[in-house]
Design brief:
Oligomer: single chain
Helix content: over 70%
Strand content: under 5%
Order of helices and strands: HHHH
Radius of gyration: 63 Å
Largest sheet: none
Distance between the termini: 161 Å
Number of helices: 4
Shape: rod-shaped
C-alpha cells in the first residue's frame, strides 16, 4: 500500500510540473480530500496491559481489606488483653473470698459448738431441777388419773361453739 501511495505521489508531482500555465491551478486541499485517509484509530488496548491493571486494582483492594482486618485484629487483641486482666482480677477476688469464707466457717463452727455446750449445760440444770421438784411436789396418782380422763373426749366435740346435731352421750365414770 505504501508503494502505491508513493507511485501516486510521484505521478502527481510529474503532472504538476508538466501542467500548462494557462490552466487554472489545482487546489491541493481538494486533492488531499480525494485521497483516502487513514484515520488514526484508537490504539487497541494491549490485553497484557489491561490484565496487569486489573491485577493491580485487585491487589489494591486486597491491601485495603488486609489493613482493615489488621486494625480489627489489633482492636480485638486489646479487648482480649483487657478481658484477661479482668478475669485475672476476678480469680484473685474469688480466691480471697474463699479464704474469708473458710475463716468465717471456722468461726461459725466454733460458735455453734459453744452454743451447743451452753444449751446442754442449761438443759441438764433445768431437767435435774424439774425432776427434783416433781419428786418433792409430785402429783398424786388420783389427780393424774382424773386429768387423763378429762383429756379424753367422749362423743362429738364442738369446735368454735357450733351446736351439735346429736346429743352427746356421757358414759358413766369408771371407779
Amino acid at each position: 500500500m505504501t508503494l502505491s501511495v508513493c507511485a501516486l505521489a510521484i505521478n502527481g508531482a510529474a503532472a504538476i510540473y508538466t501542467w500548462p500555465s494557462g490552466l487554472p491551478s489545482l487546489n491541493l486541499s481538494s486533492l488531499a480530500e480525494l485521497l483516502p485517509r487513514q484515520e488514526a484509530s484508537a490504539p487497541k488496548p494491549d490485553p497484557v496491559v489491561a490484565a496487569l491493571k486489573d491485577i493491580q486494582s485487585t491487589q489494591q483492594q486486597h491491601t485495603a481489606s488486609l489493613q482493615e482486618s489488621n486494625q480489627a485484629l489489633q482492636q480485638n487483641a486489646a479487648v482480649l488483653q483487657a478481658d484477661s486482666m479482668v478475669l485475672l482480677s476476678l480469680r484473685q477476688s474469688i480466691t480471697d473470698e474463699r479464704v474469708d469464707v473458710r475463716k468465717v466457717s471456722s468461726q461459725l463452727s466454733t460458735l455453734i459448738a459453744k452454743i451447743d455446750s451452753l444449751q446442754n449445760a442449761m438443759m441438764s440444770d433445768v431437767t435435774s431441777s424439774v425432776r427434783r421438784a416433781h419428786a418433792r411436789y409430785g402429783l398424786s396418782a388420783a389427780i393424774r388419773k382424773r386429768i387423763a380422763r378429762q383429756s379424753k373426749s367422749i362423743g362429738p366435740v364442738s369446735v368454735g361453739g357450733a351446736p351439735l346435731s346429736t346429743p352427746a352421750t356421757v358414759s358413766a365414770p369408771e371407779s
